[in-house]
Amino acid sequence: MQRLVVAMLVIVGIVHLLPLSGVLGAERLTSLYGLSFEEANIAILMRHRAVLFGLLGLFFIIAAFRPPLQPLAFVAGFVSVASFLALAYSVGGYNAGVARVVVADWVALACLLVGAGAWLAAAH
Question: Measured by CB atoms within 10 angstroms of the end CB, which terminus of the chain is less buried, N or C?
Fold first, then answer.
């Protein structure tokens, strides 16, 4: 069971690391999300978001190999993924770039559910 927990958290970590490349600039953000980020304020906010996702992704990967951190990682993962999916669903009308993020978050949610289930099974 522990190997399954590790694998699921590593996958969730990778999903959260993917936006980290956005820190490189507006051009990279545009390729990730299919939107223009030429306005300086939006570029700053989105590049900072990329850093935060990088930190969260790194935390998931560290937690995969440090069992005491795994419960917190699952909580953080569920909050991150579920909040994005809820926002995307409630707003709707997103473009193909954001649709890719939605799909990635559904994959992450599935991994979180499998991983948390395996963690709970191993704990009992």
Answer: C
